[in-house]
Amino acid sequence: MCTYQTEKLTVEGSAKTPSGWTKVTDATVYFDHPVHYGAGHALMIDVMNPEKGPSARVALELSPESARHLATAILHTLDTVPSGLLSEPTP
Question: C-alpha 78: how far from its chain's center?
Fold first, then answer.
């Protein structure tokens, strides 16, 4: 059964695509049938720059356990970075 639960958000960052590094502006997180990962369902994370078309998209398909570990690692890393380093990137 599909949940159709989808979270869309605006992001600021870069991702490496087949054509090189590109600015990313959007992210989508959802739980659905994966295209490549060999399970019935997976957590998907897509980061993209819609203005640059489909080639400016990076996709992840993760098992629920892997997704939780990744989320925990991201939060732990951010929580332990000295506050002076958590500033806006330079142009």
Answer: 16
Name residue 81's amino acid.
V
pLDDT digits (tens, 9 = 90+) for 33-46: 898 998 889 999 99
How high is the pLDDT of residue 62?
97
Which tops the pLDDT comparison, 60 or 4?
60
pTM: 0.84
Quickly list DSSP for the chain: -----EEEEEEEEEEEETTEEEEEEEEEEEEE--SSSSSS-EEEEEEE-GGG-GGGEEEEEE-HHHHHHHHHHHHHHHHHS-GGG-SPPP-
CA distance 18 to 71: 25
Q: Which structure tokens are listed for 25?
A: 């502006």
